[in-house]
Every structure is written in C-alpha cells, then in structure tokens.
Amino acid sequence: MKGILGKKVGMTQLYDDKGNVVPVTVIEAGPCYVTQIRTIEHDGYSGIQLGFDEVKAKRLTKPEAGHLGLLKATEKKKRRQFATKVPPLRRLREFRTSQVDGYALGDMVRVDVFQPGDHVDVIGKTKGRGFAGVIKRHHFGGGPATHGQSDRQRAPGSVGSTTTPGRTLKGLRMAGRMGNARVTSQNLEVVRVDVENNLLAVKGSVPGPKGAFVVVKEARKQ
Amino acid sequence: MSQQLMQHFEAPANDNVPELRPGDQVKVHIKIVEGDRERVQVFPGTVIRQRGGGNDATFTVRRIASHGIGVERTFLRKSPRLEKVEVTRHSHIRRARLFFLRGRTGKRARLAEKRR
User: Fold this and answer.
1) Total domain count, chain A
2) Are strands A182-194 and A199-203 parallel, antiparallel or unpaired?
3) β-strands A119-125, A182-194: how paired?
4) Exposure check for chain A: N or C terminus, fewer CB within 10 A?
5) Nearest CA-CA partner of A32 in A44, A48, A45, A17
6) In this predicted model, what pLDDT tens digit does every residue of B42-89 receive, in sequence order?
C-alpha cells in the first residue's frame, strides 16, 4: 500500500510529451514520518501510521508530543523510542497494509513512493457550502422564469402525492447542509513528481480549498 | 506560499514565440497532428487579445477567412506545438483588447501601422 499525506497547493496546467495540455492539481506531499507500526499480534490488524505537517512544539498537546517521542521519560512513563528523531507533527493518519516489514519508527516517506503514470485516490474535505438550496445541492432545474410565476425560480417543486401515501417519502432530495464532507477523488493519474520540492501533480481536481489537508493513496480501482 | 510552490511546475518558455502586442499582424506556425502524420499549418491574422500568466498564458489571433468570415483562434503561449510566430507589422492602438474589430468589416477593420 503506497500512501502519503499532503496539502493541496492549487491547480494549473502542464504539457505532456506530445504537447497536449493536462489539467493538474499540485499537492505538497510529505515529507512524512512513520509514527506507529500496527501489527496483527499487537493490534489485530497491520498498518503504518504516518505523520505530516511540521509545527512548533508548543502547538502539540502533551499526549501528542509523547506519541511522537518528544517528551522526556518520567517515573511512570517511558519515552517512546524512535529509530530516527521526528519533528513535532500536526497530522497523523494510518494506512492499512499487510507489509509492515522494513519500516522503523521515524522513517521518512517522500513523494518518490509514486511515479508518473501511477493512479491514486485523493481523499479530502470539500469546501463547506452552508445551507444550500436544491439547485446547488442536487442540480434541480428550478421553476419557469416566465408565464406569471413568482417566487418559484429556485423552488424544489412538489415533495409528494396526495392522501395516498399522505406523507413525504423518506430520502427525498431537499435543501440542507452541503459540503464540508469527506470525499475521495478516485483514480487520478500522477503526472509529475518533484522529490526535491516534495510536490506531486495529479490529473484532475481534488476536494477542498487550497491549503487543505489531503491523503494520497494508491488507487483501489485500477 | 502556494504561488511559490507552483512555480516549480512552470513550463519552460517557448522561445519560438516573441513578445507580442495587441494589434500585431502575425503568422502563427502551428504543428498539427493528423493521425500519425505531423504537419505545420500557418494561421495569419491580428493579435486581438493576450491573457493569463504562467502556464495558462494565451493570445488570440483574428483573421478574415474566405467569404469575409471572421475566424479567431486562441493559442497557448507556452505550447510546444507552436513552431514559429512571425510578427509582420505593428499597429497603432489605444486599447489592450481589440474586440471592436469584430463589429467591423472591410476598410473599417484596418489598423494604422506603427513603425518601431
């Protein structure tokens, strides 16, 4: 399982070797650090926890700092031992994988886990749109603009039948809170990898505003 | 900050494209791929617009094709498909976007020459 954590930088367009224009989203991905290794014997499943986004040490709570092995040992508690030291990190995420051998606490994971041509899923949180009407939220067509209509242009229309069934059916699409939800953009092609600057360019769009935290994983459906 | 990071992916400038000004008479030589053959097509006309920066910069060329039909084509400034852009003439103009040419035909669609 290949994966990395990052921040959305923004969109631009690049030229491929044939001179075609490719729309891409640039992601500042990594460097990440291995902060925990889950094993079947100990945790019932296996996986790797990565940390990302360096911050000032005082921004972390004591438990967070302790998890990263940044606190001195006390009488009650031993210090978590890392093979290599890890800076204070704000974001932690786990990746399920059966291959946990070869990883040690504190190992660095960089964008070179991906190559141009790979396909990835990018998970992020969409921009919050607040309480949105049905046209924006469900792509309704709205009402007629002419023929004596008033207050009907963006209205949802009828929400049910008459005495039978005498109620509005469950699951009917209506206005409500939109956005600010976890969304996965699937099967995006990796167009360019810049290890030196920790940048990744994937084809297409990615959920969330610029600067948003995103998780990049190997695509599930290839 | 994000702008700075983005610069790492800036495409190299296409040296075949000189500095253009709105009103310039140009001949744009562009590579066209037909099936597996590649040939160069020339699109002559007047630059009526330039927009955008970085990888997204474009310029629009307007020409009058046969039967007096106006044809506009927008080219990506940094596109590797641009083989050559010749500037044959500069014009005296007072605005950045020459959309007023669309409403004009014949002699009224001319621009005064500016020698530089």
Assistant:
1) 3
2) antiparallel
3) antiparallel
4) C
5) A48
6) 999 999 999 988 888 899 999 998 888 899 999 998 888 888 899 999
Contact B2 A9 (CB under 8 A): yes
Q: Are residues A136 and A118 in the same domain?
A: no
CA distance B40 to chain A (A): 14
Residue A54 pairs in a beta bridge with A89
A78 and A174 housed in the same domain: no
Tell me: pLDDT of A63 over 60. Answer: yes
Range of the domain at B43: 13-101
- Same domain flag for A62 and A104: yes
Q: What is the pLDDT of residue B1?
A: 56
Q: Mind spelling out the 3-state secondary structure of chain A?
A: CCEEEEEEEEEEEEECCCCCEEEEEEEEECCEEEEEEECHHHHCCCEEEEEEEECCHHHCCHHHHHHCCCCCCCCCCCCCCCCCCCCCEEEEEEEECCCCCCCCCCCEECHHHCCCCCEEEEEEECCCCEEECHHHHHCCCCCCCCCCCCCCCCCCCCCCCECCECCCCCCCCCCEEECCCEEEEEEEEEEEEECCCCEEEEECCCCCCCCCEEEEEECCCC
Q: Does B67 touch chain A (CB under 8 A)?
A: no
* CA A182/CA A127 separation, integer angstroms: 10
Contact (CB<8Å) A19/B81? yes
Same domain, yes or no: A174 and A184: no
Chain B residues lying within 8 Å of A54, measured CB to CB: none
Q: Does A12 touch chain B (CB under 8 A)?
A: yes
Query: Residue A189 — very low, low, confident or very high, per pLDDT cuts 50/70/90?
Result: very high
pLDDT at A119 over 70: yes
Q: How far apart are the C-alpha atoms of A87 and A176, rounded to whole Å?
A: 41
Model confidence, pTM = 0.82
Domain containing residue A2:
1-22+113-128+179-222
Does one domain contain both A41 and A61?
yes
Least confident of A30-34, A76-80, A109-113, A197-201: A76-80
